[in-house]
Amino acid sequence: MAESKRYISQTELENHQKPGDLWISIQGKIYDVTEWSREHPGGALPLLNLAGQDATDAFVAYHPGLAWQYLDKFFTGYYLKDYSVSEVSKDFRKLAAEFSKMGLFEKKEHGTGILLCIIALLFSISVYGVLCSNSALVHLLSGALLGFSWIQSGWIGHDSGHYQVMSSRKFNRVAQILTGNCLAGISIGWWKWNHNAHHIACNSLEFDPDLQHMPIFAVSSKLFNSLTSYFYERKMNFDSIARFLVSYQHWTFYPVMCFARINLFAQSFLFLFSKRKVPNRGQEILGILVYWTWFPLLVSCLPNWGERLMFVVASFAVTGIQHVQFCLNHFSSSVYVGPPSGNNWFEKQTDGTLDIVCSSWMDWFHGGLQFQIEHHLFPRLPRCHLRKVSPFVQELCKKHNLQYDTASFWKANVMTIETLRSAALQARILSNPVPKNLVLEAVKTHG
Q1: Where is the chain membrane-spanning (predicted)?
Q2: What is the pLDDT along the chain (447 residues), one digit of tens a residue?
Q3: Spatial separation of the C-alpha atoms in residues 330 and 352, rounded to whole Å
Q4: Using CA of residue 143, residue 144, residue 150, residue 156, what is the dihedral sign?
Q5: 235 and 129, same structural domain?
């Protein structure tokens, strides 16, 4: 006689959503991923953020078909009572299956190899300009070219963190360390930890690190309630200093973006020298040391401090274009307070994301981020296919009356500044003092 299935309720599942006790549901089967969270390639945060709920859509989005065969070892023997799938999720999973049948997740073309050659060329020209010219203008242009090479290396770091851009995992890792740690001074390990949290909790003010820039920026007045960052594990205090800085954020946005990579340097160091488990920590630190060897040495080859400062500012400012691009896709979109939900994966990703409209010949400039909605829904999809799948995503959104927001690059900048200005003006209102009763304000925010 076949053994009858054992069921648990959604309420019982929700009891397993804390460190040391992580259960998730995938297609109605309950899995205990507590131990796996320590080894999970995407880090523990995605599992912690989705624990106690259905995570099927996130699993489909982030994992290849081969990953399904490894789930059984985490199976608890329980099934979710009254498990059901929304029509949106059904269509999303069908679409993912169709893309898989078409081989889109495996066909990466040869863009990475070409891009690596372009990066090497830009870097070589920049170094040549510094070492072989006495012209201050050439030195300025060399700094700009170096910044542009950092932008392009950033696209490789982004892509290689989501899927294998090289012929093997080993070469993929080499590309990550070379373009991220060695060339740009940014820890690829830190970026993956940060970026995975962003994707899972897209536009959650408490869980998405890409919106947690207090006291410098606040994209919503909800942040004035001194919310807690569950990523950085600290309170985002809206005090007098934050009020002052946020009040002028629509003016300071672009100047800050010109030097935003300084924050990335700091975050990389904090991550690599923290007590948390860092995969391949030695490789990461060695790569960072390579950067902090060649870059200061190159700058020291310039004839005087004026040109050295000019070179560094030029390189950082050009790279600021990429930091602006990172903000455009989310700053002006809908935000929410609270943890991410696996039950409305498709809706949350589309609601909190904006696509940039551009001609195909400008795709190199945006590095795939112009199709941010498609990228968030299918993060493993190589960027060369994002334009191809865009009509299918639009059709699905139209079918279910869901958001599919697009704007030109110029309009996206305008929308971002308008969002920052709106929050800045609210921060200036003296009749809206810094909340003293944080519990009451939190209840109002959530309620």
Answers
A1: 111-131, 137-156, 253-273, 285-305
A2: 445 789 889 999 999 998 889 999 999 999 999 998 888 888 888 899 999 999 999 999 998 888 888 898 999 999 999 889 999 999 999 999 999 999 998 877 667 888 999 999 999 999 999 999 999 999 999 999 999 999 999 999 899 888 888 878 888 899 999 999 999 999 999 999 999 999 999 999 999 999 999 999 999 999 999 999 999 999 999 999 999 999 999 999 999 999 999 999 999 999 999 988 888 999 999 999 999 999 999 999 999 999 999 999 999 999 999 999 999 999 999 999 998 887 888 999 999 999 999 999 998 899 888 999 999 999 999 998 999 999 999 999 999 999 999 999 999 999 999 999 999 999 988 545 555 544 444 444 443
A3: 6
A4: negative
A5: yes
CA dihedral in degrees (378, 383, 387, 393; nearest 10)? 0
Rounded to the nearest 10°, the torsion over CA 263, 268, 269, 273 is: 150
How far apart, in whole angstroms, are the C-alpha atoms of residue 241 and residue 214? 10
Are residue 197 and residue 318 in the same domain, yes or no?
A: yes
In terms of phi and psi (left: phi > 0; alpha: psi -120 to 50; beta: otherwise), the region of 52 is left
Angle, to 10 degrees, between the axis of helix 249-258 and the axis of helix 305-328?
Answer: 120
Query: For residue 80, what is the domain's CATH number?
Result: 3.10.120.10
- The answer to whether residues 446 and 336 touch, using CB atoms and an 8 Å cutoff, is no
- Provide the domain count of the chain: 2
SS3 assignment, position 357: strand
Question: To which H or E segment does residue 315 belong?
Answer: helix 305-328
In 3-state terms, what secondary structure has residue 203? coil
User: Is residue 67 domain-shared with residue 134, that is, in the same domain?
Assistant: no
**404 within a domain of the structure (yes/no):** no
Dist CA 365 CA 224 (whole Å): 35
Structural domain of residue 45, as residue ranges?
6-84
Chosen domain end from 310, 340, 370: 340
**Do 72 and 127 belong to one domain?**
no
Read off the tokens for 349: 């990703």
Question: Do 166 and 74 share a structural domain?
Answer: no
Structure tokens at 12: 């019982």
First-to-final CA distance of the chain: 50
Residue 98 lies in a domain: no
Residues 237, 296: one domain? Answer: yes
Pick the last residue of a domain from 340, 365, 388: 340
Give a yes or no: residue 124 inside a domain.
Answer: yes
- Residues 56 and 128 grouped into a single domain: no
**Tokens standing for 161?**
């963190």
Distance (Å, whole) CA 144 – CA 139: 9
